[in-house]
């Protein structure tokens, strides 16, 4: 008997005692081991190993061409046999994302924060490009502020069971805040540029 018998195994650095036998578990836990007999498992036929039943005509799938230079996690030896090509990496956001894949494991927070930063850089670039096209993003309709003014939405917002009631006050700040800050910075930079040119 160990002096750790009353501490759950999950909190111990090692396994100080043997696992109980199947008979002990069955006596202690009603219904334990009900699925030990494969015949009692509803999915048992699917668990049978039948090499020819998969229908695959390959041992390893044929690799899609163009994997050179594609981003992949450092945990993997190569890019998966099939991969998407619809959104190739480009610009500064592509550099950030590629750095995240080349440098950090998927288990590291830095990997995911860099991917989020790359996404933010990409979306900011898309917003800026929308001004050049002559059809800029419509901030009022895309943020949903105009929808909030409709009668049925106002009535639904008073529903006490809505989860978003407690943070609704900050939604306009989160949505419009970056635009306001960007506008203020742009106006100040433009004013400095005008003063410098005089």
Helix content: 40-55%
Query: What string gives the helices and strands in order?
Result: HHHHHHHH
Instruction: Specify the structural class.
Output: mainly alpha
Mean of the pLDDT scores?
Answer: 79
Return Rg in Å. Answer: 29 Å
Care to count the β-strands?
0
Low-pLDDT sequence parts: none
The main β sheet shows up as:
none
β-strand percent reads under 5%
N-end to C-end Cα span = 88 Å
Number of helices: 8
- What's the overall geometry? extended
SSE topology:
Elements: H1 22-28, H2 44-47, H3 91-103, H4 109-132, H5 139-143, H6 145-148, H7 151-157, H8 171-197
Helix pairs in contact: 3-4
What does this entry look like structurally?
The chain is mainly α and 198 residues long. It has a domain at 70-76 and 87-160. 46% of the residues lie in helices and 0% in strands. The protein has eight helices and no strands. It has helices at residues 22-28, 44-47, 91-103, 109-132, 139-143, 145-148, 151-157, 171-197. Helix 3 (91-103) packs antiparallel against helix 4. The chain is extended and about 90 Å long.
Features:
0% strand; 198 residues; extended; mainly alpha
Short description:
With 198 residues, the protein is mainly alpha-helical. The protein has 8 helices and no strands.
């Amino acid at each position: 008997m160990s002096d750790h018998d009353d501490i759950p195994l999950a909190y111990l650095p090692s396994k100080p005692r043997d696992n109980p036998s199947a008979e002990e578990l069955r006596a202690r836990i009603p219904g334990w081991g009900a699925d030990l007999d494969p015949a009692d498992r509803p999915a048992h036929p699917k668990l049978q190993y039948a090499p020819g039943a998969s229908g695959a005509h390959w041992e390893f799938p044929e690799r899609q061409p163009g994997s050179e230079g594609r981003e992949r996690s450092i945990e993997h030896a190569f890019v998966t046999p099939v991969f998407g090509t619809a959104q190739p990496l480009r610009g500064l956001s592509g550099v950030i994302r590629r750095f995240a894949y080349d440098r950090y494991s998927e288990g590291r927070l830095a990997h995911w924060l860099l991917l989020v930063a790359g996404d933010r850089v990409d979306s900011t670039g898309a917003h800026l490009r929308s001004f050049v096209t002559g059809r800029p993003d419509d901030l009022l309709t895309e943020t949903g502020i105009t929808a909030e003014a409709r009668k049925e939405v106002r009535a639904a917002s008073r529903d006490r069971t809505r989860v978003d009631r407690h943070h609704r006050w900050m939604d306009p700040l989160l949505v419009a805040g970056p635009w306001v800050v960007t506008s203020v910075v742009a106006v100040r930079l433009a004013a400095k540029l005008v003063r410098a040119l005089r």
